[in-house]
Amino acid sequence: MTHPRIRSDRHAGVVVPRKALLGTVAAVLIALLETRLSVAEDTPDIVKQSQNPVASLISVPVQNNLEFGVGPKGEQADVLNLEPVIPLHLTADWNVITRTIVPFLHEPYLGPGVGNTGGPGDINFSMYLSPAKTGTLIWGVGPSVTFPTASEHLLGQGKYSAGLSGAALSIRGPWVLGVLVTDVTSVGGEANRKNVSQMLIQPFMDLNFSHGWYLASSPMITADWKAQSANRWTVPIGGGGGRLFLIGRQAINASLHAYGNVVQGHEAGTWTLRAEIQLLFPN
């Protein structure tokens, strides 16, 4: 799971150098199509853990989202996220799962003298309290905080934001079904920047097959509560697929998705290509 790209005061899109994107997509395609990679005997369990945002599983996803049709020239916009997930065993009954999202951004052309700049964006940190012993319903809830760490004005919001994030899911046979919801509001930062009030709703549905293959859909639905009602929501639909495999003893999950925006917020793109490589470290 991931949060949507960091939004600046001026625009919702960001772009990473195209070589980085092509490298990520190429790595995902090679991983998905390579047939000689080994598959662990417990692959189904590891795959389902990787699809669970509050699993007790250390993972390091690297996700690249390329958005098409952004800005006055309809350019490509992109965000490259590094998202380490580290579970902590609080007690015999409770776990704490931490997720940090570190974005690397570059704005495309937005207008005369605006855009075409790159660097780190605002870092988001979330922490989920979750039962160590899971039943039919798996859940986690906790705080989510965004820090104004962007290297340039256009790459971040200039605000400290805080709120709650929660996840709930159920694993039934080959299916993993659930939703992740995060809502944050600005609590400090630069006085001359507009206040922040945003929500992410990310439903996810995964259908797992043999040999580590799966189909998945996890659109990132966002709401900007400070925007006018006509521009408040961005709602994509779509999906993709992936595979979990081993290189040596290292478990890797690779996936490729495409999503089209059926409801489009102000200056949002028309569709997004998402590529991800996820390093997994089972207990």
Structure write-up:
It is a single chain. With 283 residues, the protein is mainly beta. The chain has a single domain, classed as Porin (Beta Barrel). Helix content is 8%, strand content 54%. The protein has two helices and 15 strands. The chain has a 15-stranded antiparallel β-sheet that branches. A hairpin with a 4-residue loop joins strand 1 (58-70) and strand 2. Residues 2-17 have low confidence and may be disordered.
Walk me through the topology.
Elements (H helix, E strand, L loop, with lengths): L17 H16 L9 H8 L7 E13 L4 E8 L2 E5 L4 E14 L9 E4 L2 E9 L6 E10 L11 E14 L2 E15 L7 E12 L4 E5 L3 E4 L8 E15 L2 E14 L7 E11 L2
Antiparallel strand pairs: 1-2, 1-15, 2-4, 3-4, 4-5, 4-6, 6-7, 7-8, 8-9, 9-10, 10-11, 10-12, 11-13, 12-13, 13-14, 14-15
**Overall body shape:** globular
Total DSSP E strands: 15
Average pLDDT number: 86
CATH fold call: Porin
Strand content is over 45%
CATH class: Mainly Beta
Q: In CATH, what is the homologous superfamily?
A: monomeric porin ompg
Outline of this structure?
By secondary structure, the protein is mostly beta strands. It has helices spanning 18-33, 43-50; strands at residues 58-70, 75-82, 85-89, 94-107, 117-120, 123-131, 138-147, 159-172, 175-189, 197-208, 213-217, 221-224, 233-247, 250-263, 271-281.
Task: List its salient traits.
15 strands, mainly beta, Porin, 8% helix, disordered N terminus
